[in-house]
Amino acid sequence: MRIRVFRARTAAAAMAAARAELGAEALILGTRRVAEGIELTAAAEPEVEPAPVAPLQPVRPAGDPAVAAALAAHGVPERLRAALASGPDLAAALSTHLRFEKLPLGRGSTLLVVGPPGSGKTLTVAKLATRLRLAGRTPRVIAADGRRTGAVEQLAAFTRLLGLDLIAAPHPATVLRALAVRTDEPTLIDTAGIDPFDPAEREEIAALAAASGAAVAVVLAAGMDAAEAAEAAEALAETGARHVVATRFDIARRVGALPAAAHAGGLAVAEAGTGPGAADGLGAMTAEALAARLMAAPASRQTRAAA
């Protein structure tokens, strides 16, 4: 991997210089302010497509009694656990009972990112915007969170580094006005955290999705209680949601929330958080990777006590 450092007055100019030398798929490793303006570090071999989450270990057959025990340890609900343990192997069973799909981020697409407060929606939008920017796209990013103090500023910090404009639209009407300006680029909408069990809040999201024609992706923390995740996903499916993204998947000790939510809500498993970095902290989730992660017993992820 070739690594180069570029300096320019603005982030957009530095990024343009990086793409000119390293190609349209240059991977941005980091940026910082310097006397000349912005210093940007880039590499020549990026991951433009979401990199699949790597399996942690070989996937064991589901006929193995250890599979049911591992699923139980991760909190996978009993009915789903029984179904997954009955197939020829766990990855195949996951593919049978769940859907695995990429997020719809093609030309002219609109993605509405929703979820409970603190689930990681804003960082997910930032990571998706970074991925698209590194692929040579100029996504339109809309901050529709008019409730949380500092929400717009948090997302603006990312869009400034990416050389993107951020549209602040705290009300559904202003979101629709922004979307009335047509673009061939993908549009990402960061929404305010909602209570999945509040019918009025769900209806607001559903109405916005219907009026805008946006696809809806649910963001949930991978380590949350699996039963609660299932109930939240089932409720949020009423907004028209079709995909689920599991944040903090890399640090959660138990990840039964992801299959539980996908199954209960009829949502396609799309991506999982693999780290804090905006450029590489989100990966496409596959049945094989999820199976391997579920077979990694929570106890094996404990931090060793100091001697």
UniProtKB/TrEMBL annotation:
rRNA-binding among keywords: no
UniProt-recorded Gene Ontology molecular function terms: GTP binding; GTPase activity; signal recognition particle binding
Membrane topology, record value: Peripheral membrane protein
Pfam families recorded: SRP54
Listed GO biological process terms: SRP-dependent cotranslational protein targeting to membrane
Entry keyword set: GTP-binding, Membrane, Nucleotide-binding
Keyword Nucleotide-binding: yes
Subcellular location: Cell inner membrane
Gene Ontology cellular-component annotations: plasma membrane
PANTHER family per the UniProt record, alphabetical: FLAGELLAR BIOSYNTHESIS PROTEIN FLHF (PTHR43134:SF3), SIGNAL RECOGNITION PARTICLE RECEPTOR SUBUNIT ALPHA (PTHR43134)
Protein name stated in the entry: GTP-binding protein
